[in-house]
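Researcher: Structure for this, please.
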Amino acid sequence: MITYHLKQSGFTLVETIVVVSIYTIMTLVIYTSIFNIYRNNSYTIEQSYEVDQARRGLQTWLSDVREMTYADDGTFPVAVMDAHRLGFYSDVDKDNTVEYVEYLLSTTTLFKRTFEPTGYPPVYNLVAPAKVEILSEYVQNSLQATSTFRYYDNAGAELGAPSSLLTDVRYLEAQAIVNIDPLRSPGEFLLRSGVTPRNLKDNL
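Model: Predicted structure, token format:
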């Protein structure tokens, strides 16, 4: 009589623990990689969106400043010239009425504030703007001690901020350092634009 013994195959407890451990590690590695890819792509998309928003804001600034003109009450076109604040008069909504417009960087937020004249003769109430727009919320100029606005005379010399120099302004520049998180890549983007207002030319 011949007796056959069947050899049972299977995992030992140690082998099972090793397999489960390897599977767990691989799962964690794959999950972490996918999470990091999603997080990095999400950040890049958000950064690109904010850069585009700031770019659009500078385009609006360029258009408004190019058409700055004397106020309806006769005030000189440039009213405020500061490193992070620019006030001027311009018909920004094309309604044949000259508005007072202010571009202001407050901490990291770049605002555009528009004030409408009222009455006759026209009076500008600069306490309550008729419209406030946020052009960008991630401008790092103040944190990096970089001016947002710069002013130049007819000879190309940069002007300081005293109000006595308002009538010397002939060329203006605006720049914005945009970064939604200064501690992360892909890093900051510098946007810059300059313009010569049509109504400030000396040969008019």
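Researcher: Any notable elements?
Model: The radius of gyration is 30 Å. The chain has a mean pLDDT of 84.
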